[in-house]
């Protein structure tokens, strides 16, 4: 068909999502504080004013990146399978899906985990992380109360260790790495039965 | 007694160990790259030339700090109780002692865990971390081979998850925090039986 050519952006990689991804890469490599809009424009190969056309500034980029990570994590808590069933069934779903979010949104979650609270946006992100951990703490407490988890488990400590176990994956997981297809289920197994569990007496 | 006053440094806090501790605090707060000898001298309340009297420069400080963390961790592997006994008994000792090193050497281990490999010293530290993880991987493999750990456990993944579990404590542990006296044993328990373990069938 010989229609007039569709008007399209000269840089298909210069869209908002792509700019965000570039910015997050720079934030992770240099540190947020040490990265300027100048650095970001150079990394994206566009002018500073083109960059400002998409994002009001550095903190707007940080906010968009952290929202993507936070929305991914809280989306897990909203899944029907994370809301129904026994506390341990829900925990299983949440841990597996949290690992999946981490694998698919790796740079955004990595950035979220490095946040230290120096800006309003960072303090908002820390508050969201605490809210997520509080939801996990409540669920572990429900599991203990229901007799599904050993009674001597401290829910607050368990939630911190779960968070540490899951989040530590950002340190070494890279997309496409062989042997990581079963990672979500492997982490669930480790959380529920141990990282180095005894053989079951009756296998 | 009316002896002549003992000659003492005007700043008892200006010794080598204290300077190192101050520097590590600044490295953690600002990031190593963003910290100058100027910043360090100011934080320590001494002149730059007094600082250089103790340390040849910034990288010498980093090296001393990372050596302290690395020596602490490798010291664990050298403990008699970490060298004798079944693989799982040795793992129990190593995990507990690794948590203790982390608690007592918190800032130094925190710095070690943030190292990204930008300098020769940082690459040395990363190599030492890999060597430590390799020792744990071998021990988990021995435990699987001895039938002490479930046969479907992947030793390399288990070593990564163990490292993640233990090291995540630096994110929230602070000395003197109530309820952390049993942390070393709690982490051992979590690693061997699960963070949210089922109640034992016959308690």
From TrEMBL, chains A, B:
- Residue ranges occupied by any HTH tetR-type domain in the UniProt entry: 13-73
Looking up InterPro entries in the UniProt record yields: Homeodomain-like_sf, HTH-type_TetR-like_transc_reg, HTH_TetR, KstR2_TetR_C, Tet_transcr_reg_TetR-rel_C_sf
Q: Which UniProt keywords apply?
A: DNA-binding, Transcription, Transcription regulation
Q: Which residues form the signal peptide?
A: none
Segments crossing the lipid bilayer: none
- SUPFAM superfamilies linked to this entry: Homeodomain-like, Tetracyclin repressor-like, C-terminal domain
Q: Does the keyword Iron apply?
A: no
Pfam families in UniProt? TetR_C_24, TetR_N
Where DNA binds (residue ranges)? Answer: 36-55
Would you tell me the protein name for this molecule?
AcrR family transcriptional regulator
Please tell me the species this chain comes from. Answer: Pseudonocardia parietis
